[in-house]
Predict the 3D structure of the following.
Amino acid sequence: MNNYGARVAIVDDDSSVRKAIARLLRSAELDIQLCASAQEYLEQYDPNVPGCLILDVNMPGIGGLELQDLLTERSVIAPIIFLSGQATVHDSVQALKHGAVEFLTKPVDEDELLKAVFSAIEQDKQNRSIRAEQDRIKKTVDMLTPREKQVFSYVVAGKLNKQIASELGTVEKTIKVHRARVMEKLQVKSLAELVLLAVKAGVAGHAPLGQ
């Protein structure tokens, strides 16, 4: 892996385009992966390798926009830079609307492409960092007991201790004990921190956990 810790996949059925872009990226000390089709990329994709994807719009078989949809369905969020020599405005709008980092036309300006690539790599690093933090939080939340998970959900939903006690059929003193244990296990000291953690974990606003 290069100094940037990332790999750039070039997916284009035109070998001359693949080679030209490969030369450019290698000159910038970037690792590359060459694919002549969307299917080849799907077969070689490694979710553990950070980076981005330079993708041709019009290819035989699975086209660029179709591949983008397939990756979304599979929860693959590798940032995509589209290249096209004959795409429509609708194509570019759809690509960007669905999360593409950039939509460039062929022949592509080298400086513009490199700028887009480094931007995409940085975006991927940030996305991976966020997902790692979410996974860490979810694992911590999973360590709570079923009742603590319920109390946690009610607290971040804005319920008062006495309201939670009524909902769960217990007394307020018991809820206070559970609430204290939740905050201790999740290593937070305030309600604001608890709510922020719930947002990061993706459980804020959901139905009470454990039900």
Q: What stands out?
A: Residues 110-141 form the longest helix (32 residues). The CA atoms of residues 144 and 182 lie 7 Å apart.
